[in-house]
Design brief:
The complex is a heterodimer. By secondary structure, chain A is an alpha+beta fold. Chain A has six helices and nine strands; from the N terminus they run ααβββααββββαββα. In chain A, about 40% of the residues lie in helices and about 25% in strands. The radius of gyration of chain A is 24 Å and the shape is elongated. The relative contact order of chain A is 0.13. Classes of the chains: A alpha+beta, B mainly alpha.
Chain lengths: ~220, ~70
Amino acid sequence: MSDIFVAKNLTKKDNLSAEKEPVLKKPANLSSLERLPGHTHNPFTSYCYYPEKVNFETKEEAEKIVLFLRQHPIVNLKWIFIATVLALAPSFLLGFNLSFLPGNFRFMAILGWYLVTCGYIFENFLTWFFNVYIVTDERVVDVDFANLIYKEVSDANIDKIQDVTYKMGGVARTFFNYGDVTIQTASEVPNFDFLAVPNPDKVVKVLQELRREEEQEKLEGRVR
Amino acid sequence: MTIPFIGISIWGIIKIFAIIGLLFYIVFALVVVRQVQLMIKTVELGFDTPLRFLSIAHLLFAISVLIFALIIL
């Protein structure tokens, strides 16, 4: 009697091998870099794998940036909404009676209002743009640009990483696939928080593989 | 419109406050220009020239508003 159903062992094996495929795909040359998933030239990107145009002050010559992260663009929605309200406010307010103000004062009030709105937009944009997280093949770097007069740059070697966890919760985070990655280290800064970064699962996997590579390098005595 | 007994125009006082406010804003815009320069030095992100331009444009806008205020108020 012939078999009605034959299990496809080969397909299963293929799936398993695909699952075990490493996340950390290193570019062999410049042309293969372009084909890497997650690689982009967009300066406003929140997730870039092997970025080309990114550089930081304390980067060593032989060091390679593996991952570049910043907060998901969706976090900007709040201040963009406020900025829109601020930008539209004068046209609504003009509907009210502002005749108690002389014409020149009215004009200057509107001009000043738009100046402050511009400042608000620019400051919020800068805070988002410069608040970046960089993972190199040697360390993780956290550039915190909290506001205009405060910045903090901290880093920890990959081999100092003790534990990496990520959390995703809430509708927006699940829908847009972003979350917080917490890195516990044995360095001077005990915790690194990559807040609201896209693809947190991939970030964790990249960090895991980098740690594994670093351990391998140590075993082989190839430590830089 | 003048304040009784003192004889100072209320719009004159508002003008002085507006100019002081704008001077403070120019200091803020200068801090923004400096901070952008420092941040670009700390991390290069491939958008340096437009950011420098934007910060200077913001400063020039603030200065021009101050000049306008001095002329038309």
